[in-house]
Amino acid sequence: MSVPTQQHSAPPDAPTADTLLATLGLWVELGWLRRVDAHLVRFMARHVPEAPASVLLAAALASHQLGRGHVCLSLSRALAEPRATLSLPPLEQSEAHLAEVSVALPEAFLADLDAGRWAEQLAASRLVSVLAQADSPAGHLPLRPLVLVGERLYLRRYWQAEREVAAGLRARMGPSEEGETRVSDALGERLRELFASNQLDPHGEPDWQKLACALALRQRLTVISGGPGTGKTTTVTRLLALLQAQALAGGTDGAEGELESDETGHLHERRALDIRLVAPTGKAAARLSESIRGAVAKLEVPDAVRAAIPREASTVHRLLGARPDSRHFRHHAGNPLALDLLVVDEASMVDLDLMAALLGALPAHARLILLGDKDQLASVEAGAVLGDLCEHALPPRYSPALCADLSRLTGETLEQAIAVPDGQDLEETSATRGRLADHVVVLQKSYRFSADSGIGALARASNAGDRQALRDVWKAGYRDIAWLKLSGPEDRDLEKLVINGYRPALEAVRERRPAREVIDLLLEFQLLCALRRGPYGVDGLNQRVARVLMRRGLIADERGWYSGRPVMVTRNDRALGLYNGDVGITLPDPAAGGRLRVFFPVEEEATPDTERDGQDTDIQRFHRGVRAVLPSRLEAVETVFAMTVHKSQGSEFRHVLFVLPEGANPILTRELVYTGITRAKSRVTLAGTRRETLVGAIERRVVRASGLVL
Ligand SMILES: Nc1ncnc2c1ncn2[C@@H]1O[C@H](COP(=O)(O)OP(=O)(O)OP(=O)(O)O)[C@@H](O)[C@H]1O
């Protein structure tokens, strides 16, 4: 095989397209590029044979960035760090290693190019359509596979999705077709009553939950970001109560007394708003259902209002009507969803494509509330919509008109400092961004992690990327956080923690306890890893944990299907209604003569045990709140004693054991550390060979390339 040699400096003659295509093949073999990226470029080269190497390289890299979450390729970033555009494992980046593999690197094809010249070459190609800016009109844009917007290169489908998301959000930021609606003073009064139980902040901070609610009453798009336990669900539940009370009173601001006297079941049904709650994964939907139920129970509102608040969340895919074997949904602009208000929880996990589909299917009048944590890892697929929307959210900068209205509704005095003069904006943000700022609110006070919580302190220090704060947290002697120094991947203390962590669930398996109980016990503990490969990665640790658990007699086998094997679905299976990230457990099914089945939790409203007692058979009790799937029908699953932090998004566990890899790694970032730590509800143990790895990680940030402009 002829191998293009390594070129660290500019070659005398520009490399040809053929050289590039050969090199792409080698990059694929080395695992630096995905097969699909190379295929795409070969296809383009066949159709446009005159395309130069620089254009084909840009196409390969733009495609490759999608697999790493970026929506597009930034030409200037690629020129500044060409090697970072490929998936070069850190250990393979040394000059010695690169010399050994003897393969051309991206810079060999970029010599003598700057962003301007590269853009010119792209613009001259029949493969590329050119747009001056993201929001330039695109009416007559030729149908070409790549789109260049300024210095960002997109595969057309993703450019289209980004444009649709921007248009969908922008449309919701203006007044609706019925015109601007002013929230009445009466509704403001009810808002204040509903939040009256919130304690005043000792430092004089306004009640941001109340302000978030007021913001969402005024408009059709509201983004509420906040870390764990900051009251996102509480706030949105109160918002739903206010809106339903208003709707049930006939859309007027009738007082609650009128509502009572007006109460005829039929009328209420007719007038209540159609509200839907969704989350990106089944697990996140189940968690949202549970916390909405908790928040509804705490509401002090008339029964009719309480009854009109949904308690069941579904997945975004289910809401949109995912169809087996199709990327297209049943609901879209031509067949919109029938709803008045949509709450999307864990919105940071919604990728660009799905957000475009969701916005497309939403009727124009509907309100959209996006809830999530802007500091968490973004979606696995390309895009970081929530992050992009919240990029300038802190400190809050609302327009004076909004500040005045919020004060009227909430009674809070908003410091003039947070207001942006009407029509103007702060230096770095455009006037249009000022408009977006009026739709975003960040809740910062956590009610889950009290001031003496180590998890809260650790999460804050990590999120701030503050090395000294991190040191102080370890020194402060919190009881709910621990550092486990690992002697190596076979560390005995690590084994002990894992055995103790999984013992309750596996003993419940042995005792043939109902499947749902076992699943709930499984959520008590989770081993999380930053990486997939390597001695501290998920693959290796899963095997090791299974071996150790078998040695202890907690499971009977460590390979294939065995009782007690927890599995995670790794690819959406629309036919089975299972989605990437769903977790189930393998158990002998009493309804199938004890043959193994995999049990997945189902989203269903809990019926109190008192109503069931004496009615259920043992088999019914075993199957309550779960559904059984034949192991042979599960095509893409993996054992999940260890789980990557990426896959743990949307889940929470009582105790998280978070294993860090050795040394620096580009995957190990602040967002990843923060997300891993905040999966823990009451205890987190961080494990690694060196604390410096953690410090290095929180100083590394992920910035996803995108061009979402609102
Ligand atoms: N203002 C408040 N005062 C006191 N307790 C509050 C307040 N807001 C929320 N809580 C309580 O804090 C807990 C977390 O609230 P909630 O579930 O609304 O937060 P969240 O941001 O949705 O959390 P997550 O999404 O991380 O589960 C709940 O027990 C809730 O009752």
Automatic annotation (TrEMBL):
Highest taxon in the source lineage: Bacteria
Annotated RecBCD enzyme subunit RecD N-terminal domain residues: 29-154
Binding locations of ATP: G226, G227, P228, G229, T230, G231, K232, T233
UniProt KW keywords: ATP-binding, DNA damage, DNA repair, DNA-binding, Exonuclease, Helicase, Hydrolase, Isomerase, Nuclease, Nucleotide-binding
GO molecular function: exodeoxyribonuclease V activity
More details: In the RecBCD complex, RecB has a slow 3'-5' helicase, an exonuclease activity and loads RecA onto ssDNA, RecD has a fast 5'-3' helicase activity, while RecC stimulates the ATPase and processivity of the RecB helicase and contributes to recognition of the Chi site.
Protein name according to UniProt: RecBCD enzyme subunit RecD
Gene (UniProt): recD
